[in-house]
Amino acid sequence: TEAMVAVLAYIFAEDDANSVFGECDALNHGSSGVMKKAGMHLVREWEEERADGRTYPMHRYLISRSQRVGR
Prior knowledge:
Layout (H helix, E strand, L loop, with lengths): L1 H13 L4 E7 L3 H9 L3 E9 L5 E10 L7
């Protein structure tokens, strides 16, 4: 989580980005947890078909410059 917060701080300090998003497999609770703890919010859910032919649930998280933790 600390690394994610540091990366977000760097992006917002060094770039003129207004927002940052991250995507992960919805079943990867560790990745989802890190994004949530870093202040990101779930903004999209969908299913994605992979090369093995199976469908996996996906999540997209977003944080805006004004929402970031530790600003």
